[in-house]
Amino acid sequence: MARAGGWMSLQRRDLRDARQRTSQTCTPLAQLKMSTVFLLLLVATASVGAVLEKGLPRREARRLSCVRCCGPSEQPVSIISSRYTRMSSDPAFSVPKVQPTIDITILKGEKGEMGEKGYPGAVGKEGERGLRGFNGRKGQKGQPGPQGHSCKQLYAAFSVGRRKPLHSSDYFQQVIFDTEFVNLYKHFNMFSGKFFCYVPGIYYFSLNVHTWNFKETYLHLMKNEKEVAILYAQPSDRSIMQSQSLMLDLQEGEEVWVRMFKRERENAIYSEESDVYIIFNGHLIKPAVE
Question: What angle do CA 215, 191, 268 make, to 5 degrees?
Fold first, then answer.
């Protein structure tokens, strides 16, 4: 370094002497040209000196890094100065950061109160169906149930007719039938003219009669001793067939029958031996106990 600095000083002094001699003997234009040449030489000299100054540390660093002062089995000892080590960016020579340790327990305060309950969130998506679980244990035997009803089918039906005409002589007169078409289990009594209910349930009944010319037709369908339906036809010069039908809910022991009703005019129904004009039907639709 000292040798390079001396050489640069000699160069600057020679340039100053040459400039002084030139300024004394040359014209102003020549002096200006010479000044420009001297400035260029001065700049070139300064650049060479700077390059030499920058190159010396690198040569020194290269020379220092090649020194080996340990055996083959020993770890090398770094001879780089502590200042150079701190300035290096190599992680092996980086200085660890110092972080203070704070005891968080001395800063912890008391537990606060519980906050208010938040609003319920939105309904999530339906999840996948899970696997089938294991079979549970067998339960205890239950109590016996009520006794069932018999599977036997229950029936009741009748169809009867009358071949003789009938005139009402009394205020009320019961209609008696003389022809039996169907009388299942003899539930219809041909002598009393009444149907007796042995199987409780819902029944269907129908009554068909033929009117008499110029006479009134007035009959009642009776349940026990109560009128439940009427069959009526006004007097006319022409006779017609008249009918009535209904359904009744009967209990065991109840009766259904037909009677005639007489008012101011004569009441009559027509029939003859060769044909049946008066027919009374009934049958069970649905028993009360199945």
Answer: 0
Residue 125 domain flag: no
Cα(282)–Cα(197) distance, rounded to whole angstroms? 11
Q: What SS3 state is found at 265?
A: coil
* pTM score: 0.50
Q: Which domain holds residue 264?
A: 157-287
Q: Which of 51, 79, 95 is the last residue of a domain?
A: 95
From the list 199, 225, 211, 227, the residue with the least C-alpha distance to 283 is 199
Do 166 and 275 belong together in one domain? yes
Q: In the chain, which residue ranges form alpha helices assigned H by DSSP?
A: 2-25, 28-65, 82-87
Q: What share of the chain is helix, strand, coil (3-state, %, to 5)?
A: 25, 25, 45
Burial class (CB in 10 A: 0-12, 13-18, 19+), 160: buried
Structure-token match 């040209």, residue found: 33
- Position 23 scores a pLDDT of 53
> Which residue ranges in the chain fall short of pLDDT 50?
2, 4, 55-63, 79-80, 84-85
Q: What is the pLDDT of residue 62?
A: 47
Q: Which of 229, 203, 226, 204 is closest to 218 using CA atoms?
A: 229
Of 76, 95, 114, the last residue of a domain is: 95
In a domain, 138, yes or no: no
Specify the amino acid at residue 188. Answer: F
